[in-house]
Predict the 3D structure of the following.
Amino acid sequence: MIQLYYGTDTNKTDHVAQNVLIPMLKEHGLDIKDKVVAEIEADDWKNHDVFIIGVPTWYYGDLQSDWEAYFPTLQKIDFTNKTIAIFGLGDQWGYDEWFVDGIGILADAMIANGAEMIGAWPNEGYTFQKSKALKPDGTFHGLALDEDNQWDLTEDRCQQWVNSIAPELKRLMGQGSEVDNLEEKA
Ligand SMILES: Cc1cc2nc3c(=O)[nH]c(=O)nc-3n(C[C@H](O)[C@H](O)[C@H](O)COP(=O)(O)O)c2cc1C
């Protein structure tokens, strides 16, 4: 079962997770268990291998409050052999020097502890000055959403992102197509 963990202060990430991303992932036949950060237990990271993480950015480049409180714990977790896709909400006009920084803060910490990230996302279609979420190749570590200014793009962005990661998620969950499975055995 894929684990989707998210934090939310004003429920925008909750809305995107519950009403947009989870239904889209389920349409691909993927089983999802979701939790808010406060419900994460230490063994969750040991007992599962595939995670989707949702993080809004707050207060000039900070993590959302629950992720902020959880961060010291997260920095001690071994993410070796774990695959993680991350999405984040931000406000590219109001906070253009810190746009979706939370994506970058969590991705960097998880990568440092061995995680394999999937679901990098192009930076076209946004206007901002700086973001810690950008990789050296200019793509975001994960899906960047802006419910404050570009809510009308959220659904399409989510659909494209889900379509792009679904084949890999299915493969990891042993739900790959017959062709994928044969290729793996070869
Ligand atoms: C006081 C405040 C500070 C914020 N700081 C940032 C920021 O530094 N970077 C950013 O991209 N978005 C920032 N935002 C925008 C939020 O990330 C955005 O509204 C998000 O959708 C909130 O998600 P949530 O309701 O799930 O908490 C800020 C919003 C507020 C109200």
About this structure: The chain has a mean pLDDT of 95. The CA atoms of residues 122 and 137 lie 10 Å apart. The chain is about 40% helix and 20% strand.
